[in-house]
């Protein structure tokens, strides 16, 4: 089972390394990771996707909480939440495929952020499934390069972490 | 406000924290702190002979006293030499603070002479660690380090201090309190869960209290005894829990696990309710996990939530300080209408079964009048010290025989490396304990293998005139590994037969200690008498039966009921 964890952590040197080390040292997996400071610059918000059975997820949450630098851990995938990833995709766009790339971009509401005689660079945001779909459809047209963020997530409605 | 240099701030904080002795070894990156120590003169410094020894000595001091132990090392190799000691303390939840010198901040990351990223290296084996880059943060950081080391589930905290920070000056004010928004020390036990535990205990017919080092760490000795006596349940302890419940108490069924008593393992395996207090279901305790206590419901009390539901699924988790939870258990039990006699009646059939197990296979060994049996030596030491000594051990057979045949009646009287199993722990730990308690009898139970791992610390003990008694059980083997090879590797003694062993009597002489050696069973008592009464550092060497094993033994990966008996 895939879980998305939101972690509030002190914005201190070594905090990220402690978290990464915890995962490797205890044999847990990190599928994606995103970190940035919160509105309060002394605190960072870290979103982490991982997988495992209930016992493993419970251990991950407890082990994270045990770190002195970790303020709070919430498994946002337990409740209603929104999640987004962003990808930049450089696609081959020559005479015969130029129009097709544009059409795809339109359908998925991507933005064209860079144009060259032989390529388009698309910016796409959405849940992981959407990014996957875009990638699958663009592949036959020729993806030259791709950069992708990890997941960021937020609980719906009034709930905050 | 006074302006102080970093090195002076360190000493001020140590004094404020009540530190009276530190263990260390100087070097270029920490020379300034040593200079301040010399000028100040208020804190006793014990000069070890290897930084690992400093770490273990601080650990031994902490385990014997319950206070935070402190050690000091220089950058680079000095710092890396402490790593084994730090990992040892981390596995056994021992509060120590390690201060390391670091190259000046301007050189960090440049591969400077004796530079190593000790904060990076020790991140996974400390409870927390710091690199102090600004002298203004020094006092606050040190205060936090002590606070984190001793609160919650205790553990080692390392503070790395660059040379320029040691010398930079700032206004010094000792912070009144620690504010760490992300660190919760003592969660309050949930009252509803205490009530549920009470009901589970009342419903059980075959309960057992399984207690670990948490009971010793949290000073819950009296609370545990009161609760155990109130419900008349059998008590089994882990290696770390020895001394947490009186070894001579009629309800004590002995240590459990790989080298536990037949009775303790059978009691666990057949129980219908395990009340685990300050223990963590380590693989040496559970054996094969699928067959562990198949009929038992489990209540697990621990201050560290990560210990719960880690190795076994439990039915009721209670996160909290063992001392508080045990008090609440007792109050909960008192609130029921059951009298002491009711509890006795209820568990009478269970006790009958337990006593039968006890009789069937008590801890035993075959006395021999030709060759010394190690168990005999330990029994005699117990008789002669009446259980009043502080015993440290090395790791291996010497450790297990000690755990089995010495009855620990008081907490903090057995100092041993349980989780990490660090050979070479015993001697430096004995130094730490003897520094804390100069008038107590401190004995290091060693093998001929493990004593050689930190044997250089004899010089430390001699320099400080510490009357430590070192018992070497010499079988010329790395005995525990040899035992595994005998039982599971068709006696292929690969790398375990010492073809050369130094003359320990000459070592005793070289270090100006008293040395007595014997290989005759009839001399054991006389040698112990003479050695234990000697007022100085003493090495007593017993040439023991070469292939004596530690039994019972649960082979690794087997169910705890599949014990190999003598």
Task: Kindly summarize this structure in a few lines.
The complex is a heterodimer of chains A (161) and B (566). Chain A has 161 residues and is an alpha+beta fold.
Structure characteristics:
heterodimer, A: 161 residues, alpha+beta, five-stranded antiparallel beta sheet, four-stranded antiparallel beta sheet, 4 helices, 40% strand, elongated, B: 566 residues, alpha/beta, six-stranded parallel beta sheet, globular
Molecular structure report:
The complex is a heterodimer of chains A (161) and B (566). Chain A is α+β, with helices and mostly antiparallel strands and 161 residues long. Chain A has four helices and nine strands; from the N terminus they run E-H-E-E-H-E-E-H-E-E-H-E-E. In chain A, the strands form two sheets. In chain A, strands 5, 6, 7, 8 and 9 form a five-stranded antiparallel sheet that branches. The longest helix of chain A is centred in the middle third of the chain and has 13 residues. Chain A is elongated, with a radius of gyration of 19 Å. Chain B is globular, with a radius of gyration of 24 Å. The mean pLDDT of chain B is 96. The longest helix of chain B has 21 residues. With 566 residues, chain B is an alpha/beta fold. In chain B, helix 17 links the parallel strand 15 and strand 16. Chain B contains 22 helices and 20 strands. At the A-B interface, helix 1 and helix 2 of A face strand 6 of B.
């Amino acid at each position: 089972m895939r879980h998305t964890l939101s972690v509030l952590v002190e914005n201190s040197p070594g905090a990220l390394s402690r978290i990464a080390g915890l995962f490797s040292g205890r044999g847990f997996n990190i599928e994606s990771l995103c970190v940035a400071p919160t509105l309060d610059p002394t605190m960072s918000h870290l979103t982490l996707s991982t997988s495992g059975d209930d016992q493993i997820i419970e251990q991950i949450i407890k082990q994270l909480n045990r770190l002195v630098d970790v303020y709070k851990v919430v498994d946002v995938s337990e409740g209603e939440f929104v999640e987004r990833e962003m990808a930049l995709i450089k696609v081959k766009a020559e005479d015969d495929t130029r129009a097709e790339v544009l059409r795809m971009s339109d359908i998925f509401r991507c933005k064209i952020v860079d144009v060259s005689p032989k390529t388009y660079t698309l910016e796409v945001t959405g849940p992981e499934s959407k990014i996957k779909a875009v990638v699958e459809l663009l592949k036959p047209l020729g993806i030259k390069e791709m950069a992708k963020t990890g997941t960021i997530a937020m609980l719906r409605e009034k709930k905050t972490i | 406000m006074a302006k102080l240099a970093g090195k002076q701030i360190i000493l001020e904080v140590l004094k404020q924290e009540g530190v009276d002795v530190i263990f260390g070894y100087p070097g270029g990156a920490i020379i300034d702190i040593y200079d301040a120590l010399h000028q100040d003169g208020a804190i006793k410094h014990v000069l070890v002979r290897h930084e690992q020894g400093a770490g273990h000595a601080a650990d031994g001091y902490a385990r014997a006293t319950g206070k935070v132990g402190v050690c000091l090392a220089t950058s680079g190799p000095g710092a890396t030499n402490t790593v084994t000691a730090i990992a040892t303390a981390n596995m056994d939840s021992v509060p120590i603070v390690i201060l390391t010198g670091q190259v000046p901040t301007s050189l960090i990351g440049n591969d400077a002479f004796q530079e190593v990223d000790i904060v990076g290296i020790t991140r996974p084996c400390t409870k927390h660690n710091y690199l102090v880059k600004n002298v203004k943060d020094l006092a606050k950081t040190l205060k936090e380090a002590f606070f984190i080391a001793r609160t919650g589930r205790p553990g080692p905290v390392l503070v790395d201090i660059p040379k320029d920070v040691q010398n930079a000056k700032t206004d010094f004010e000792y912070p009144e309190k620690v504010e760490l928004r992300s660190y919760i020390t003592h969660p309050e036990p949930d009252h509803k869960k205490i009530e549920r535990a009470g009901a589970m205990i009342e419903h059980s017919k075959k309960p057992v209290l399984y207690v670990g080092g948490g009971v010793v760490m949290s000073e819950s000795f009296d609370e545990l005894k009161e609760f155990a006596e109130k419900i008349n349940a059998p008590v089994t302890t882990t290696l770390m829990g020895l001394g947490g419940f009186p070894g001579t108490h009629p309800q004590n069924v002995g240590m459990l696990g790989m080298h536990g008593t037949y009775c303790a393992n059978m009691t666990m395996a057949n129980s219908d309710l395990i009340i685990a207090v300050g223990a963590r279901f380590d693989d040496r305790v559970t054996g094969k996990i699928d067959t562990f206590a198949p009929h038992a419901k489990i209540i697990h009390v621990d201050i560290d939530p990560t210990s719960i539901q880690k190795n076994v699924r439990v039915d009721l988790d209670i996160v909290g300080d063992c001392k508080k939870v045990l008090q609440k258990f007792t109050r909960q039990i008192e609130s029921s209408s059951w009298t002491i006699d009711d509890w006795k009646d209820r568990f009478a059939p269970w006790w009958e079964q337990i006593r039968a197990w006890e009789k069937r296979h008590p801890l035993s060994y075959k006395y021999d009048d030709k060759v010394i049996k190690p168990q005999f030596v330990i029994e005699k030491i117990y008789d002669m010290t009446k259980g009043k000594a502080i015993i440290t051990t090395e790791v291996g057979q010497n450790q297990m025989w000690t755990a089995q045949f010495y009855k620990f009646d008081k907490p903090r009287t057995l100092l041993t490396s349980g989780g990490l199993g660090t050979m070479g722990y015993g001697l430096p730990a004995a130094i730490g304990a003897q520094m804390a308690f100069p008038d107590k009898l401190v004995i290091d139970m060693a093998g001929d293998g493990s004593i050689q791992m930190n044997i250089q610390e004899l010089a430390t003990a001699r320099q400080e005139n510490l009357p430590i008694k070192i018992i070497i059980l010499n079988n010329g083997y790395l005995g525990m590994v040899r035992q595994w090879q005998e039982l599971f590797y068709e006696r292929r003694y690969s790398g375990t037969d010492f073809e050369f062993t130094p003359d320990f009597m000459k070592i005793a002489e070289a270090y100006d200690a008293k040395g007595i050696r014997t290989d005759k069973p009839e001399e054991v008592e006389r040698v112990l008498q003479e050695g234990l009464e000697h007022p100085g550092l003493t090495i007593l060497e017993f040439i023991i039966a070469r292939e004596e094993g530690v039994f019972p033994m649960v082979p690794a990966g087997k169910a705890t009921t599949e014990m190999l008996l003598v």
